[in-house]
TrEMBL record:
Xref: PANTHER family: REGULATORY PROTEIN GNTR HTH (PTHR43537:SF47), TRANSCRIPTIONAL REGULATOR, GNTR FAMILY (PTHR43537)
SMART domains recorded: FCD, HTH_GNTR
This protein's name: FadR family transcriptional regulator
Lineage top rank: taxon: Bacteria
Domain HTH gntR-type: 9-77
Keywords linked to the UniProt accession: DNA-binding, Transcription, Transcription regulation
Pfam families assigned to the protein according to its UniProt record, in alphabetical order: FCD, GntR
GO molecular function: DNA binding; DNA-binding transcription factor activity
CDD domains assigned: WHTH_GntR
InterPro entries the record matches: GntR_C, TF_FadR/GntR_C, Tscrpt_reg_HTH_GntR, WH-like_DNA-bd_sf, WH_DNA-bd_sf
Length: 232
């Protein structure tokens, strides 16, 4: 979706709407830097003050965030994501993990009932990526990202856009949690999760929601216990 010249009515609101849409569609993904002010002025066909006011308003809502000397970055995909991000600032890692764990449990159950063949292929691919990262073992960040990709694939297969979106909004918090749990060498609690993740996928493939939920709870219990151990 390219930017286009904005009509001379409600200029700020129109610019805000265009930027929000670019973020929502993923053309400006979370974590990316938006174009510099001169580029936005040229592409939108509006004045600098209009662009500044629009960017300032989106920063106030939490969708954008300035980094002095480095530009403005996308912090969240929408207002919900911005609100979740703000709330998680005041939550500890275990609290955030427990909430996201409830999403994982329900996602596994729904995915067993609703997944398509394409969903299953994506889940299997993500599981293989997680196992590859585990086998390499020397790159904690790669393992964390592979683990998150697996759980996102399961959430997407649940066939509930609201659940998938809420689940994804907790990714930043879970990423920090996993970085704290996954050390070098990897704890035994994480080692056991290789088999537990496979059990989740097998249950989803069989179309067995009870087994998928049980496997997810088994995995989540081990991970939560590892996190509690670190916090003691």
């Amino acid at each position: 979706m390219p930017l286009h010249t904005t009509p001379r009515t409600n200029l700020v609101d129109s610019v805000i709407a265009q930027i929000e849409e670019l973020i929502r569609q993923g053309e400006w993904p979370v974590g990316s830097r938006i174009p510099a002010e001169p580029a936005l002025v040229e592409q939108l066909g509006v004045g600098r003050n209009t662009v500044r006011e629009a960017v300032r308003a989106l920063a106030h809502t939490g969708l954008l965030g300035p980094r002095p000397g480095d530009g403005t970055y996308v912090l969240a995909r929408d207002g919900l994501g911005a609100a979740v991000r703000r709330r998680l600032r005041y939550s500890d890692a275990l609290e955030a993990y427990e909430v996201r764990a409830s999403f994982e449990r329900d996602a596994a159950r729904y995915a067993a009932v609703r997944r398509t063949d394409e969903d299953l292929a994506r889940i299997r691919e993500a599981l293989a990526g997680r196992e590859d990262a585990w086998e390499r073992g020397d790159d904690t960040s790669a393992f964390v990202e592979a683990d998150l990709a697996f759980h996102r694939a399961v959430a997407a297969a649940a066939g509930n856009a609201v659940l998938a979106e809420l689940y994804d909004q907790f990714s930043d918090s879970l990423r920090l949690t996993l970085h704290s749990v996954v050390g070098a060498p990897l704890p035994e609690a994480v080692r056991r999760q290789v088999a537990e993740h496979t059990a989740i996928v097998d249950a989803i493939e069989r179309g067995d929601p009870e087994a998928a939920e049980k496997a997810a709870l088994h995995h989540l219990g081990a991970a939560a216990e590892a996190l509690r151990g670190l916090s003691r």
